[in-house]
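Team,

Forwarding the record for the chain on the shared tracking sheet. I've put the sequence and predicted structure together so nobody has to dig through attachments.
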Amino acid sequence: MTALADGVRSRALLLLDGRELTVSELCAVLQLPQSTTSRHLKTLGEAGWVVSRRDGTNRFYTRAEDLDERSRELWSLTHEQIAEAPASAQDQERLREVLAERRTKTREFFAGAAADWDRVRTELFGEGFQRMALLGLLDPDWVVADLGCGTGVVADALAPFVARVIGVDGSAEMIDAARTRLAGRDHVELHRSDLEQLSIADDSVDAVTLVLVLHHLADPARVLAEVGRVLRPGGRALIVDMLPHDRNEYQQEMGHLWLGFTRDQLERFMRPAGLRLDRFEPLPADPQARGPLLFAATCRFHPTIQ
């Protein structure tokens, strides 16, 4: 009560209710020197009314959230009285100007940095962090089957964001490499199995990935039938593969059985499995890549579709 008895401190606390401000911003709003503003903040902090955090060279202050019941009641009464005072109305006008100046500084920075922003962001945070972060949109309760998991790159990316990942590959060597990569991820299962006959129960997974796998399969339609079998109704599948190309040497050098796929081909493979193609999008070309262009296709399982 003593801390709030001073009108300036009550006005400061009103400004800090639900927002963070620096000392200099409070000085501008309250029209007080920094020494006086800091002294009031010290009193409010010692009484438990405000908390602060350091951000670089700035320290931001805000009203404490973890007030006891009596303090909340006291602040509710004080808030009601202070908010109606003429001085508080003028504080709010100056506060709007202070916050507008914040936004202006941000706009000025981006106006000058726009031309180099992609380079600056890459230098600071690396390539591809946005794509990895987008995995956070996945449902954390999902079970995802990564078919043709190889060395576990996709399973490793998925694992932090979903409840369980099931990696399946027909190569013992690939499974061994995936097991090494995924060591310590207890919610990732790895199975050595033909994709035409999965050791996964019916209606047990929410999503399936097939990343650069379909062109290695003798019978893609049969594998997609297995995808439909293991997906729950409404479950999704993501297929990433090559667009049609004429690099016949891949069949001899890398065991490719298909020289890419068209949208129509995929739809023919999917339809008997109850899979409905939602999207078929060519992926942007990477100037550093030497292989054919890729696509990403997404589909959903609808048991009634034939």
